[in-house]
Structure formats: structure tokens, C-alpha cells
Amino acid sequence: MTAFQDSISAPPQAAAKAARSHRNTLSARDRMLGVLVPLALLAIWEFAAQLGWIDVRFFPAPSSVAKAMLTSLRSGELLTNTEATLQRLLLGFVLGGVPGLAVGILMGVYRPLRLIFDPLIAATYPIPKSAILPLILLIFGLGESSKVVMVAIGAFYPIAINTTSGVREISPIYFDVGRNFNASRWDIFRTVALPGALPFIMTGAKLGAGLGLILISIAEMMGAKTGLGYMIWSAWETFDVEQMYVGLFVVSLIGYLLTVLFNELERRVVPWKGASK
Fold it and tell me: CATH number of the domain at 75-275, out of 1.25.40.10, 3.40.630.30, 3.40.50.10320, 1.10.3720.10?
């Protein structure tokens, strides 16, 4: 009997188990590849720096950056700045993401609201968020509020836009079924709009978190005494290149970990998306 015939004759439960095992194998392979490629690039960078192929004044060897990171960890500077950035990022993401989610679902469900808000979002979204930082500082001052507002603005737009697109992608028949069963607006929101738009919402959350991380770094460079952005800017002012790369590396690491976190969350809350691949 051929393998194809075996797969046909196999019980459905065994076939499903084999499919899950195959997906897990592919997932493990993808994770390993995602780790090995950056390590290989760092090894090439180290090799080029040791042989003098690149100017270490501007591109210090990863080993030098690692030594600077250990020194910063021992002094507590790196942990303090990382904690400040993460607190601002988390608070700003929540303050911008929750309204973005609500506005996106309402725009997707109710056409009049979409006609009202869509032009406003379309007109304000292309404005560079870093360009309005002086205005944010003028309104909210140099304290924590201005940094949080910058992150909130960065998180609001991707989540609102993607959520609206996700709701509009839902087949109208699901909304009609809900109305035929006399479902309330809250029930339609909870059981139709929100679950149906989840894949788009997760995409918007990833984009919003990434943009928020960019904006908080910029905001900390302009008006802060703590944070990774402040650390990078201070290192640039004193031409401490290794320390500057430490800050850049930690920012990139946070971005990577956020992506991993959202991917894992997406795998749990949107299991049918992974199963279709």
C-alpha cells in the first residue's frame, strides 16, 4: 500500500495528530532559523572587525559592544533605562490601542461613523508622528505624559485601520443572522465583529507596538532623562559608540521579543489562522 493510500485509510484523529506534529516541526525549524541567521550575521561582523575590514570607530566589534553591555548592566544604567522605556511603551500602547480597537470596530460595523471618521484618519495618519513631537511637548510638557501620548498616537492608527478592515472583511451574512435572532448591538460586537476581525487586529497590534517603540525612542531623545532613547542620544553626544550600539541592540531586542509575544498570542487566540497554512 502506498503512503497516499495509508494516509487515506488512516483514522481522522491520527491524520490530525500527524498534521499537528508536522506544523510543530516546521515551527521549531522556523524559530531555529530565526535565531541562527542573526547569529551568523554577528559572527561575520565580528570577523570583519577583527581583520580590519570595517572601521571599528563607527562599527565596533560585537564583542566590544557585549563588554559595554555588561558594564552597563553592572552599573544598573541599562536596566533603569530599559524599565523606563518599557513602562512608557506599555502604558501608551494600552491608552492608544483600546480606543483604536473600539473606533475600528464601530467604523466597520456602522457606515455613518465610518463616513465621519474615515476622512479624519486618512488626513491625519500620513503626518509624520515625529514631526508633531514639538507640539506634543508644548501641550503636555517635558514629563512622562508627552512620551506616553506619542506611543498612544503611534498605536492608535494601525490598530484602528486594521480593525476596520477586518470587520469589513466579515461576510454580511453573519451580521444578518445575528439581527434575525434579535441579537443586541453588544452581542453583535462581541460574537461577530470582534472574533471575525481578530486576525487583522493582531496585525494592527504588531504594527502599533513597533511604531510605538520607534516613537518612544525618538521622544526620549528629545526630552527625557531616562530611557533607551535618552541613553542612545547621550552616547552619541559623548561619542561613546559602543554604548550607543548597546542601546540600539536593546531596542531591536525588545522589538523582536514583542513580535514573538504577539505571534504566540495570535497562535492562541486565532488558532484557525495557523491551521490554514
Answer: 1.10.3720.10
